[in-house]
Design goal:
Structural class: alpha+beta
Radius of gyration: 11 Å
Shape: globular
Oligomer: single chain
CATH topology: Alpha-Beta Plaits
Number of helices: 2
Order of helices and strands: EHEEHE
Bound molecules: iron/sulfur cluster
Helix content: 10-25%
CATH class: Alpha Beta
Strand order of the largest sheet: 1-4
Length: 64
């Protein structure tokens, strides 16, 4: 699974970073960065929570 971010929707509120800090990072300019390309199985639950909890619906998971 791969994470896709809709940058038009992301408002850099950090909800996903708190849910899965191993997968998401906000830089000093409030730009969201993905720390993983392929989501490892041990991060799957956290990343799915981040996708679910994003208040802007900016995250999705796709099969690659
Ligand atoms: S939770 Fe959503 S809106 Fe917030 S930083 Fe992450 S992707 Fe952006």
């Amino acid at each position: 699974m791969k994470i896709v971010v809709d940058e038009e929707r992301c408002e850099a509120n950090g909800v996903c970073v708190r849910a899965a800090p191993e997968a998401f990072r906000l830089d000093d300019d409030d730009r969201l960065h993905l720390l993983v390309t392929e989501v490892p199985s041990e991060l799957r639950d956290k990343v799915e929570r981040a996708v679910r909890d994003c208040p802007r619906g900016a995250l999705s998971l796709v099969e690659r």
